[in-house]
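Revision sheet: structure tokens.
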Amino acid sequence: MSSPPGAARRSETMTATAAAETAFRDALDEHLAALQARDAARFAATLGEDVAVVDGGGEIKRGTEAVLDSHAEWFALPVRWRFDYEVVLTRETASSGLALLRVTYTHEPGAEAVRFLLSLVFERDEGEVFKFVYDQNTPLE
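Predicted:
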């Protein structure tokens, strides 16, 4: 019995789509794991070339060096902060991925938690690897 016309093409497309979604989700998971591990080198490996971060106060950090500097300072804090999150939604295309997270951040044990939405955008680089390029923090309280 032969396959219907176009079945192989649909199967290849579905496989490519699943691979893109897996690649994006792997990149997202690695980025967030590096952040939670407070690992600046690992975090740096997830960044794209033209990265921009907008914090909850509206301050914009643009460029790999500025973003790495701010995160290295944060990672080095002596307090044991917590960054807990829930992935609310993800969207993927062949060239980009978006994740919306609901974050609960506690600066130090016993401190009041801060809640915010975090939008993360990733783009495929020239090596076809998803890299983090944009972060928008929206306070909830």
